[in-house]
Amino acid sequence: MNHAVIMAGFGGQGILMIGNLFAIGALKQGLNCTFFPSYGVEMRGGTANCTVTISDHEVGSPVTSSPNGVVAMNEPSVAKFAPRIGEGGLLLINTSMAPDNDFSKDGVEVIRLPCNQIADELGNIKLASMVALGAYAGRCGVVELKFLEEALPEVLPQKLHKLIPSNIEALRAGAKRADKQD
Amino acid sequence: MNHAVIMAGFGGQGILMIGNLFAIGALKQGLNCTFFPSYGVEMRGGTANCTVTISDHEVGSPVTSSPNGVVAMNEPSVAKFAPRIGEGGLLLINTSMAPDNDFSKDGVEVIRLPCNQIADELGNIKLASMVALGAYAGRCGVVELKFLEEALPEVLPQKLHKLIPSNIEALRAGAKRADKQD
Amino acid sequence: MPRLTIHEDRCKACGLCVEFCPKDCLALSDKFNPQGYHPVELVNPDECTGCAICAKMCPDVVFKVEK
Amino acid sequence: MPRLTIHEDRCKACGLCVEFCPKDCLALSDKFNPQGYHPVELVNPDECTGCAICAKMCPDVVFKVEK
Amino acid sequence: MAAKTFEKGNVAIAKAAVAAGCKYYFGYPITPQSDIPEYLSGVLPGVGGQFVQAESEIAAINMLLGAGSTGKRAMTSSSSPGISLKQEGISYMAGSEIPGLIVNIQRSGPGLGGISPSQGDYFQATRGGGHGDYRILVLAPATVQEMYDLTILAFELSDKYRMPAMVLADAMLGMMKEPLEEWIPKQAEEDKSSWALSGAKGRERRKIKSLFLGDGELAEHNWKMLEHYREVEAKETRVKIEVHDDCELAVVAFGSAARIAKSAVDRLNDEGRNIGMVRPITVWPFPYKEIRELAEKDIPFLTVELNVGQMVEDVRLSVEGRSKVSFAGYPPGYLPSPDEIYEEITKLLDKKD
Amino acid sequence: MAAKTFEKGNVAIAKAAVAAGCKYYFGYPITPQSDIPEYLSGVLPGVGGQFVQAESEIAAINMLLGAGSTGKRAMTSSSSPGISLKQEGISYMAGSEIPGLIVNIQRSGPGLGGISPSQGDYFQATRGGGHGDYRILVLAPATVQEMYDLTILAFELSDKYRMPAMVLADAMLGMMKEPLEEWIPKQAEEDKSSWALSGAKGRERRKIKSLFLGDGELAEHNWKMLEHYREVEAKETRVKIEVHDDCELAVVAFGSAARIAKSAVDRLNDEGRNIGMVRPITVWPFPYKEIRELAEKDIPFLTVELNVGQMVEDVRLSVEGRSKVSFAGYPPGYLPSPDEIYEEITKLLDKKD
Amino acid sequence: MKTVFERPQSLVDTSFHFCPGCHHGTIHRLVAEAIDEYKVRETTIAAASVGCSVFLYDYFDIDVVESPHGRAPAVATGIKRANPDKFVFVYQGDGDLAAIGTAEIIHAANRGENITVIFVNNTVYGMTGGQMAPTTMLGQRTTTSPYGRDFAQDGYPIRMTEMLAQLEGVGYAARVAVDSPAHLGKARKAIMKAFATQIENRGMGFVEVLCTCPTNWGMGPIEANKRIAAEMIPYFPLGVYKERTGSDFM
Amino acid sequence: MKTVFERPQSLVDTSFHFCPGCHHGTIHRLVAEAIDEYKVRETTIAAASVGCSVFLYDYFDIDVVESPHGRAPAVATGIKRANPDKFVFVYQGDGDLAAIGTAEIIHAANRGENITVIFVNNTVYGMTGGQMAPTTMLGQRTTTSPYGRDFAQDGYPIRMTEMLAQLEGVGYAARVAVDSPAHLGKARKAIMKAFATQIENRGMGFVEVLCTCPTNWGMGPIEANKRIAAEMIPYFPLGVYKERTGSDFM
Ligand SMILES: Cc1ncc(C[n+]2csc(CCOP(=O)(O)OP(=O)(O)O)c2C)c(N)n1
Ligand SMILES: Cc1ncc(C[n+]2csc(CCOP(=O)(O)OP(=O)(O)O)c2C)c(N)n1
Ligand code: SF4
Ligand code: SF4
Ligand code: SF4
Ligand code: SF4
Ligand code: SF4
Ligand code: SF4
Ligand SMILES: [Mg+2]
Ligand SMILES: [Mg+2]
Fold this sequence. Notes:
By secondary structure, chain A is α/β, with parallel strands linked by helices. Chain A has helices spanning 15-28, 75-81, 115-122, 128-140, 145-155, 164-180; strands at 2-10, 32-37, 47-55, 69-72, 89-94, 108-113.
């Protein structure tokens, strides 16, 4: 098993955080894992992305030109990364930030979720990325939700630890909503 | 035939000039020739030397660790270069500047000539190096004196051309004195 | 009345124009532009004098001002 | 009387000591040293005050001065 | 044994330096290695060390030369264009026999190129991008753990042989996170009191230099260095060889290319083929002998590099016609997937079959 | 045809530059090449050119980059340590496809080394001392006449292929005097109006750069450059081969080493042996094919270099085991006599016999 | 109706990659206005530098060559010496000009190269993620001065305009800011003067522009903009440091 | 009998390779006297530079490391940062310090490196055969300014002491000469002060010494010595440009 997912969005949407969380969750589940952030000029203009690669073998390349999945938190991320998804892949589109996007590709499953709205409903719009991650993780099944929850204390800075419960809630809400989609 | 000679002395003794003259004389005689001056740090502290290599073939290395001859215009030059002379070689020592030198080496012929004194007798102490060259050239026979004389206008700067006759005189005086030595 | 043309897609919502408009004519809108920012809009067109301070302060050359 | 020690072998005949000696005690000799220079010599020992100006001006640390 | 943390490759290098007792860092920012100075600027002051942000890469390598001449463990790090600027200094350090660590987190070239991963500086690192006959130790990690382990080894070898050492990684290894297990080397630091500058107290003064103007002196110095290099080649060559009997083809790759290639090789072996893998860990000294021995068994090679063909020359120099050497190159701005390398190998096997 | 003059190698290069229409010189003093800037500082102002003494070698190579980007023939020159400092700039010029001449009058290394002749920068010149995958044209003269001829050729090839060119000589060739016949190239200068910067008048603006950040853009650029290099290899490799039937051994040497070796070879042939001589005139592109063809005739080789072994790798890469390759190296600070090389060859022949 | 303000012609109609509120955009626009004003678009060759302004060639409708980090003044020297009839400018950040490129700017200035230099001082290495620059303020925290810049360790922030103004080869030297309409006006004027200096062959025209880097200062754009007047100008005083009239040249 | 003058102890008893009348010898002696005076021979590590003074390690009885051309201030920074208890000095020529090494000296000064710098300005590249330096006087003919240095082409000679004295990191800066007994006395004092500056941890101590190069000036030693007062001092005024007392540090 080798699963590579690109997570992408505007800076400030918590992209690198959910990437890290997914990675450490995978480790907790006993899998091998690498995390590769975007860096340098790529980050100017306020976008961010990262690649998380999970494997039950040693991980080869931590970057990929044809990911198994993409978590696209905004319109430009769909445009940039979705076409690269390989056969049998999974795409999550945050429709709150890409309302009119109608991307589709043969062999690629698309989850459309208004993550900001769901987060807002949960009382904190900043949880949108957690909703997205929950949805993605729930649907693709590579990392179990419970390991993501377990990993939260390592990823969130100390001062945000009081928000762990609401983050768990967001992960679960995402997973549930994604599940209901089809 | 391949003949390499090192000419050495204090700066200001005209070493590079007689080296050049010997080289261009050789060319005029139809031989191949290279001239290699000392340069850089070697020249600090007021010493100068050059290597002239003459051949009837293409010239290989323009520098040598075992010259066929050495023209040593002062004491340090004898010390530095004379021991390197190969079998059958020729050494000219300017005894005016190395009065007590008693260098000798098997298979090396040594001419001892008070060049400054001879030049002084000719009326211009600056001609000492010409005396030395005349002596060396005359004795080793690789380049005929007449070609050296022919080459003088090319080597002396224009403003010294009026001194060509006295330079010729010095070359000849050197050759003559060297001839008389044995 | 001066005419202000706002190239919304270029706006990065830095707020400098809003801050420096002497007539408080500008504000950031609620919508998103394709770059993901809330672009500026002219909320007080009647007050606008066409002084072009907004245009000069804008790092992203979002405005054209005519009068 | 001051004592001037001249390390002749080190002298390069630049003449600075000669030039600056306030008492004109020094001159370049006719002989050669091993470096090929005419080393300086004390020609006027009686005039020498041991002021050490020669020593200080000499770039080659040729002198030792005692008094 | 410490628990594993999830760490960036660059940070692993920085942590390893601290673990190795390196107290002095001199460097100039450049992507994708800036995590190293950033981490050390926070940590070194607390351990009585010094973090100096130099005005340029040239200044940095010369600060390293200065600190190294006093026997102190010290380092610099940069990325490709910055490493080019250090070449004169590296040549001086090599010529003056001054130890010190230089980290190159390679990015794309030539010129400004880009900031994506690359192995385009292999020649520069192993052949001497600077002037004159010299070599430096070059270690090529392939995992975040090796970024740590080989950094410590580089310090140790550098001190032991009094020559500069380089950790040659790239943007992929520098920027990625993987689990890391930290450890502290037990071995005491090499005693440098016999040569390091410390003030000429109670002993003859010392000169550390590379200028030799006496007759034949420099030639002798160069021969001495060469002999030294031969010793290092004999003792310190490191390579990971996974080649079994009747191997059909061996892939040779180092660093990040080796990671990607390994996935392809594993897949082929899972499918029942017998593909070997040779990963030089030291690229200078290069495992010429080891590869030659495989070539003598008539094993063909495929060299995989993130460039248009550099290490493949060393493979060909090892093999010298004994078996076939093929090459698959991926210049920067594009990273091959294991699948592409899988295809490449399959093509070769098909041709053979 | 002009009469021959007795000229220094360095001056021959400077005169050739003027003859080739090079009007712009940028450089920094260093022994043993300072005759070049000294000569040109006197001459260029008189031909409407510019002589700029840069504050450093780095500034000089970048001035060359600037002038070259506008399509003007221009040059810089230096010697080993100074050439190391130019490596970043050379990598940029190569990556940006900017022509220009770089002269390296090699001296002894590594480090400050010395000012005597050396061939220690062969790797640096031919493998790219800078970062990334690139090559530059490298011409290796062996006589003062060739210092002149190959300088002109270097300008022409540099313009033609839009890549930097280097004349790789050394202190021996630079400081010695030999007869020189000057000539003026007839060929018109390459038309550069299709790419050079001249102000965006009546056309699209132009960008000369080496930064390529688009997906796969840089990889494509690197492949394009590689293709270009393959073309140069096919068309511009130059080598002087003097090998006769039943040749017992061929000596391979370039530049000054070739001169010294040639005397030894001549002597042996005079004595009735059959020794061949192979002198690469371009060392990049290297005459791999030509040497391989000789190797296929089972001719053994002796590579002679003024270093501890650099070009010999290219010889071995040409031969790839087809015949035996031996090496005689003479690091700087000491120049071998033809006699020593004679002995070396004789030893090899004896072993063979 | 009259156009009071519009995009300068020599500024390509595309969006900048700069972060929100970054003054680089403003400074680009002012330079483009000067190109338009002096009608030099078709004779200009610029030497781009390495920093957040590296994509200069995408924004100006002119010929551009890319320089290695810090070396733009040398590249520009090469261009100008070989093409004295062209208009040549460089645009450099503070890391580029005041750190790695120190020797190149000082000697281009000292030789009196007839080029125009736009020096953008934002007290950090913007492009590489906010490391300390030679111009970083005392106490300022950056990614490589995590405890704040400390004099004893890192020295004081360097004032390049003052240093360069001393050199005879510099015809015009000024420090300006673009943080307020008033400062903007002066900045515009200074850039125009630096252009005129080259056109009139009076040596190097040099303008230092104090610039925000909201991203690496960890501030919002408005707060960053305020920092210019609050912290930077007191240490880096604005003004014209040198203006040579024709006659005192040489 | 009392010794009024003798060879300083830390100066090795051997002859210099310098040309006749070259001031390098005098300056070496003054530095050796300072080493003796402050009793730092056994704690000194010097960074030699490349120029006619490259053989410094043969003349001083101290530990020395050789630096690449121009980089001695960086090498010294590395030494001093790793060994704050050692006394560290550099000795650089004008080509070394004011041309290729411009960035290194300016930034070592700006960081306030606690080292001592002896800067020997002889208006030429001595070692390489007399090429033009940034300090070459207007009109001076050198091997690379055969028609004399011309402002329009090469700029004015650069004044390093003035430039460096401005930087906060410099504790002491002076320009001296050794062409007369009176100047010599002041030169000696300045070098002593530059030593003291380091010992008292007050930042960089910098002394520029105007120096002859009879060989490359094409002059006899006496004539060369006279040129210092006649031509150099008027353009390079002698004096103490900066002397920081303990209290105004920081
Ligand atoms: C030789 C070299 N060293 C380092 C770098 C990395 N680098 C790119 S931009 C930059 C500094 C940018 O800072 P500045 O010049 O202040 O420009 P800003 O981005 O702040 O506008 C650095 C260090 C490089 N490209 N080349
Ligand atoms: C990188 C490099 N460039 C050039 C040189 C050649 N070089 C040696 S010394 C020197 C300049 C010497 O001049 P200066 O520093 O003024 O010292 P001086 O000899 O006049 O005392 C130069 C250019 C070198 N050794 N290394
Ligand atoms: S033109 Fe002036 S008044 Fe109108 S919006 Fe802009 S700043 Fe405000
Ligand atoms: S200044 Fe420009 S970018 Fe900023 S908010 Fe106003 S229009 Fe938008
Ligand atoms: S000590 Fe004074 S008086 Fe005596 S020789 Fe020297 S300078 Fe003249
Ligand atoms: S100053 Fe010194 S070197 Fe010069 S002449 Fe006098 S003793 Fe000799
Ligand atoms: S990083 Fe700073 S300087 Fe660069 S674009 Fe962003 S705000 Fe501007
Ligand atoms: S060349 Fe000049 S600086 Fe060098 S030793 Fe001779 S006189 Fe002194
Ligand atoms: Mg900046
Ligand atoms: Mg000098």
